[in-house]
Amino acid sequence: MKNLIKIIAWIITAVFICGVIPFAAEALDANDWAIVTYDGTEKSHARISVSENNGIRMESEGHYPSSYAGLTYTKPLNVKDGISIDITMEELNSQSSDVWFSMVILSAPVCFDYSGKNEGKGLWILQRPGTIETLVIADGSVKSKGNLKPNDFVPGKDYYEPGAKIHYDIKIEDGALFVYIDDVKIETDFSEALDYFENGQCYFGFSTSDTTLSHQSFVVDYINGQQAASEGHLEGGEIPTETEETIDFENVDKFLLVDFTNPDILSKIGGVGDCKLEFDEAEGCIKMTVTGEDPHFEIPMSKSRYFDGGKFTVLRVNYKTDEDHDGTIYFTTKNVPKIDYCYVEYDFEKTDDFKDALIDMDESSNWMDEVRSLRFDPVNEGEEGQVFYFKSITVEVFEEPETEKKPDTEPEQTKATETEVNTDTTSDDAAKEADTTKEDGKAVEKSNNVWIWFVLGGCALATVIVIIIVVTKKKK
Fold it and tell me: What is the H or E stretch that residue 84 is in?
C-alpha cells in the first residue's frame, strides 16, 4: 500500500513538471521594453521607468510629430492564444481637445506612423472616453476602420482622468479576430490583420497623441496577468528627460517662459499653422513668415512651467514687425482645457527696433487658474509675406505705474490720519469742503468784530454818564 502511494505521488509530480511548468507564463523583464520613435524624430522628451507596482511607466513631454515617442514590448506574443493588457493613466490632459490614447498590435516592434514612414502592419486602436476608432493598417494605409460610441463627448473632458484604467482583450472567436475594451466588444472583424502576424506572433505598443508640449504619463500594469516589469531594473529611466531650471514661483515676480534667441527652440515649438518658423542669424532670434490666413504656433510648456494665472497676469512679448497688427493669445488651464473659452486679444504696433508688448491676460476670467498651455496668434487675419521677429516671452506680476511726484516748491499738505480719510471723497468734494471751511472762518471773524464794537460803545457810554454825574454835583 505504501509503495502504491509513493508511485501515485511520483506520477502527480511528473505530470506537474512535464505538463504545468512548460505552460507557465514567462516573467516579463523590464529590459524588454523600449522607446520607439518615427523616422527623424527624437527621444529626448520621453523616458521609461518601473512603477511602484512593477509596471512599466512611460512619461513624455513631446508633441506630434516632432518629438513623438511610443512604448513597445520587444518580445513577441501569440495572438492565437489570446492576449490581455491592463493600463493605468497617470496624466493625459487635453491641451487642444485632440488627445488620444493609442494601442497598436503590429508585425514588428516599431512606432507606427500613420503617414507610412515605417513598415509596421496590424491594428491601431485610438481612444478617448467618448470615442474609439479602430483601424487595420498595411504599408501606411488604412484598409478598414470602425467606431464605437461615436460623438459621445463630454465638453472639455475628451481625455482620460488621472487614475483611469483600461483593459484590453484580443481574442479569436469562431476563427475571427476581435478586440474588447473594458469588456465591450468592438463590432469589427480584424481577421484580415492575422496575415501580418507570422505564426501568430505580434508586438504591442502604446502612445499618446498630443499637438502641444505637455506632460503625459501612463503605466502598463499587466500583460496576460503578468506584471509588466516583474524582473529587471530600470531605476531612473532608460532615457533621461530634458532638464529645466526649476522656478520658485512663490518668490519671483516674473520669469522667462520662452527664449526665442536659442535656435534649439525650433524643435520644441508645436502646433504650427499657416506660417513658416526659422532662426534668423542676423537678428539672433526666431523669424515668423505668414503663409496663410490663420498663422499660429504653440508655446513650449512642460509640466515644470505650469503657473498660477491668478498671480502672474501679464505677458511681456519682445518683438519687431513692420506693420500694425491685432493678434490673440489662446490658452488652457487645469479646469478649462479648451481654447474655445480661453483667449485674450491684443495689438502689435509697427516698430523698426525690438520693443515690448504688454498683454493683460486677466481680461479673461478663465486665466485665473493654473495655466497649462499657450497658443500664439500674432495676427488674426494673416496675409502671405507678413514678417514677425520674436526674442522672448516673459510672464510677470502686474505692477501699478508709479505716480509723478509734485514739485518741491509747492507747500506741503498736512497728512490726514487713516481715520480722517474718506476713500469715497473726490477731489471736487475736498475743494468744496475747503471753501466751506473758509466761509465759516469769515463768519466767525465778522461776529468777533461786532462784539468788539459793542464793548467799546458800552465803555464810551459809561464814560459819558460818569462825566455828567460829576459835573452836576459840582454845580450843586
Answer: strand 83-92
Single out the residue of 174, 193, 172 nearest to residue 83, CA to CA: 172
CATH superfamily of the domain spanning 249-396: Galactose-binding lectin (2.60.120.430)
Q: What is the DSSP string of 380-404?
A: SS--TT-EEEEEEEEEE---PPPPP
The DSSP letter of residue 80 is: G
CA distances from 238 to 57, 108, 425 (A): 11, 21, 67
Same fold: 25-227 with 249-396: yes
CB-count burial class (<10 Å; 0-12, 13-18, 19+) for 390: buried
Topology given in CATH for the domain delimited by 25-227: Jelly Rolls (2.60.120)
Cell numbers 490658452 correspond to 331
Domain regions of the chain by residue span:
25-227, 249-396
CA separation for the pair 467, 462 (Å, rounded): 9
Distance CA 453, CA 457 (A): 6
pTM > 0.90: yes or no: no
Can you give the length of the chain in residues? 476
Mean pLDDT by 10 residues, the chain (476 residues): 55 47 58 80 76 88 68 92 93 62 87 62 82 76 59 52 89 90 85 87 84 76 92 54 71 94 85 90 96 90 85 96 91 80 91 94 93 89 92 93 58 42 43 46 47 56 57 49
455-460 long-range Cβ contacts below 8 angstroms, 24+ apart: none
